[in-house]
Design goal:
- Helices cover about 10% and strands about 30% of the residues.
- It is globular and about 60 Å long.
- The strands form 2 sheets. It has a 5-stranded mixed sheet with strand order 1-10-9-3-7. Strands 2, 4, 5, 6 and 8 form a 5-stranded antiparallel sheet that branches.
- It is mainly beta.
């Protein structure tokens, strides 16, 4: 990809790629506006949880949760984790340093949520990767034997030409039953 490696558009739409600069401090806030906690896991890093509290007011929050206080960690070194659980109707703010070049996934550990798109990809320091790492020839040979391009963007083309890129998977909506709950196909 050369100079375009830092442009998230060259990775296509499927991975929800967020390109990070080497050694950048990344701070993310995630809101959970529903009745189920979400265990989130970040590959390739440990992060510091620096704040949590009630989810944004523009989400419908039940009254029983409205007294939740915001907690900010003000100590010199907040605890480090690679997995966190975002409680119901809460948000969590966390940060990490982009000091591990590679492609890393942040995702919900509930598989059905990950399949529905509750995941994002960090393409970390691709410029550094291009300068410092080499894909083994055996891996390139494996791709070539399957007709998979080994150069270019997500579609195997140059620049922003995404022609030939496979369509992303879709989630088929389930129809509600007469009881108002979604049918799973096992009823």
């Amino acid at each position: 990809m050369g100079e375009q490696a830092m442009d998230p558009r060259v990775y296509g739409v499927q991975p929800h790629a967020n390109v990070l600069r080497h050694m950048e401090v990344v701070e993310i806030t995630i809101h959970n506006p529903n009745t189920m906690p979400h265990p989130l896991h970040l590959h390739g890093h440990t992060f510091q949880i620096i704040e949590y509290g009630l989810a944004k007011a523009d989400f419908p929050i039940p009254d029983r949760f409205k007294d939740i206080q915001t907690i900010r960690y003000t100590g010199s070194v907040p605890a480090k984790r690679d997995t966190m659980s975002i409680p119901t109707f809460h948000y969590i703010k966390f940060r990490f340093r982009a000091d591990n070049p590679g492609v890393w996934l942040l995702h919900c550990h509930l598989d059905v949520h990950m399949a529905m798109g509750m995941a994002m990809t960090f393409v970390e320091a691709p410029d550094v990767l291009q300068r410092t790492q080499q894909v083994p020839s055996s891996m390139l040979d494996m791709c070539r034997s399957q007709g998979i391009p080994t150069e270019g963007n997500a579609a195997g083309n140059w620049g922003l030409d995404m022609s030939g890129l496979p369509a992303p998977p879709t989630v088929v909506p389930r129809e509600p039953s007469s009881t108002g709950r979604a049918l799973t196909g096992n009823e």
